[in-house]
Amino acid sequence: MARASVAVVVLWALLLAAPAGFAEDEAAPSDLPETVTTEHVLTLADGELAYGATAGFLPVGPESDAPDADIFYVSYVVRGAEAAERPISFVFNGGPGAASVYLHLGALGPRRLVMGEDGLPAPPPARLENNPHSWLAFTDLVFIDPVGTGYSRSRRNSGGGNGGNAYWGVEKDLESLAAFIRLYLTRHDRWDSPKVIVGESYGGFRVARLADSLQSAHLIPLNGAIMVSPALEFALQHRARFTLLPWIVTFPAMAASAETHGRGGLGAPDSVDVGPEALAQAEEFARGAMLRGLALGDALAEAERQALYADMAGFLGLSPADIADNRGRISPGDFSKLLLEDEGRLVGRYDGSVSGFDPYPGRPGFAGGDPSFDFLLTAFADAIVPYLGESLGFETDRAYESLSRQVNRNWEWSDGERDSPFETLGSIDALYYGMVINPTLQVVIAHGLFDLITPYFASHYLVDTMGLPPALQENLQLFDYYGGHMFYSHDDSLAAFTEDLRAVYQGMGVRP
User: What is the pTM assigned to this prediction?
Assistant: First the structure.
């Protein structure tokens, strides 16, 4: 597997079994706004790019003659390009319950939320600016809001109530996304275009699963599958007392985060130079001495245990007593609370390089809050509605659900194949199958180094152990960038990400 060198730069979204296949139909309820298309020009370093922006709904449902949900989307299509040569990328976020606004206005679209140098949004009100790193330079884009997010609703309860439960589950959700993609390709005459799917966080899980089902069940061939800060195997996120790997795969990201605050032991010369050599120290320690020590437990000699805890403390910028109190198992919440506790500050879990005032300084242990994430959500929510109305001409009285906690709360985690709980859900087998049946499929997994929610090292572990045939290993690339779950909120990381992906699209055999 090709592992790109860590991007050294200056300086998220979150984490239905139904009838086999969701069909599409034509009619939409009469109370929905009409689909609108507006014309725009994107100014890039090498010239101007004329494009059309379309905002509207497509209907999906479990019966061919009775669609029962409407999925909202925004597409950007460059004018004057040949469809057979111009790739089309279908983009969604995660949650489950997140709309596509984060990748839309944060990274890939032609307009982007104004961010500060620290990767946090500028003071309110939210403002948008021209995005010189938009992927529109090399692919048309379709941003999809799954049912219950954005303006997408089930017709069973258009007010966003539990009627959406018909779509709020692992397999039901995947089937509805596949139905949307098929209908879009048909209505817009894009079957001849190279096809790519892009997803962030739980959206990365969606991409890995769809890499199999789109191709094998729905007969939609793919050229690319791109996962941004993905959650791929939930067993690696389910931290329990008697599990080992969840603690191991998070450790390097915490060590890297500690370094940015001047508290770590990686020996990086400054807080913005956490490169691959420094990270290798923490990675080797985590899957070597730390894994052995945690596995031995009380069988480990006392002197060795104390030495292990001292080494862990050195990497993480914590005290050996903190490590011992948790028996060597430091969660992202523990790390967030403890690292800068002496300053009354809390470290971000979505981006460990960010810190802010602890909202609960007097409470023992982590009690909530995330300075790298909470206000970021507010900024995106503040930006999307006026952008859709004023710039794209799409207006409705519906509430735009940028992050629906109702969807997340009511999600059915069974994968439809077995009665599996959340912590056993996985997608690597599906990704493997999708790559094997289509040996030209180009796959990218991209992470931020300081993401403690979906840590980069989890994906590295999975890629190292998935067992791809040697001839296919170069089709899967790993990229790591300065930043957290939404590493693209850092300007330099977004620029590097865009150039890396431009090359990947070129490798799909299509012209950028």
Answer: 0.91
Name the residue type at position 150.
G
Mean pLDDT of 416-430: 75
271 vs 266: CA distance, rounded Å: 10
Task: Write the CA distances from 74 to 150, 376, 471, integer angstroms.
Answer: 11, 21, 37
The letter for the amino acid at 326 is N
Return the amino acid letter for 232: L
Residues in the chain: 512
Q: Reduced to 3 DSSP states, what percent helix, strand and coil does the chain have, rounded to the nearest 5?
A: 40, 20, 40
C-alpha–C-alpha distance, residues 319 and 214, integer Å: 49
Distance (Å, rounded) from C-alpha 81 to C-alpha 190? Answer: 12
Q: What is the pLDDT of residue 3?
A: 45
CA atoms within 13 A on the CB side of 512: 16
State the angle between helix axes of 302-316 and 245-260 in degrees (0 to 180), rounded to the nearest 10: 50
Which CA distances in Å does 327 have to 296, 300, 305, 313?
Answer: 12, 12, 9, 12
How many helices and strands, by DSSP H and E, does the chain display? 14, 16
Query: From its phi and psi, is residue 368 left (phi > 0), alpha (psi between -120 and 50) or beta?
Result: left
Given a contact cutoff of 8 angstroms between Cβ atoms, the answer to whether 255 and 316 are in contact is yes
Q: Write the CB contacts of 139 (distance below 8 Å, at least 6 apart in sequence).
A: 86, 87, 88, 89, 196, 505
Residues 316-342 have a mean pLDDT of: 95
pLDDT of residue 119: 82
**Residue among 35, 94, 150, 41 at smallest CA distance from 394:** 35
At residue 20 the predicted structure's pLDDT band, cuts being 50, 70 and 90, is very low
Between CA 51 and CA 55 the distance in angstroms is: 13
Is the link from the previous residue into 125 a cis peptide, with omega within 30 of 0? Answer: yes
**Per-residue confidence band for 122, with pLDDT thresholds at 50, 70 and 90:** confident
Query: Do 29 and 155 form a contact (C-beta atoms < 8 A)?
Result: yes
Chain segment 28-46, per-residue pLDDT in tens: 455 788 999 999 999 998 8
Residue 512 is which amino acid?
Answer: P
In our burial notation (b when 16+ CB lie closer than 10 A, e otherwise), range 15-49 reads: bbebeeebbbbeebeeebbeeeeeebebeeeeeeb
> Tokens 């507006």 correspond to what residue?
38
**CA–CA distance, 247 with 290 (Å, rounded to integer):** 9
Q: Which among 505, 474, 486, 410 has a CA at the least distance from the CA of 3?
A: 474
How many angstroms separate the Cα of 188 from the Cα of each of 44, 183, 357?
Answer: 26, 8, 49
What does the alpha-carbon distance between residue 122 and residue 119 come to, in Å, rounded to a whole number? 9
pLDDT at 375: 85
Q: Which domains does the chain have, with CATH numbers?
A: 2-235+377-507 (3.40.50.1820), 240-330 (no CATH)
Partners of 3 in beta bridges? 478
Give the closest residue to 178 by CA, choosing from 144, 229, 136.
144
pLDDT in tens, 153-168: 998 754 444 555 789 9
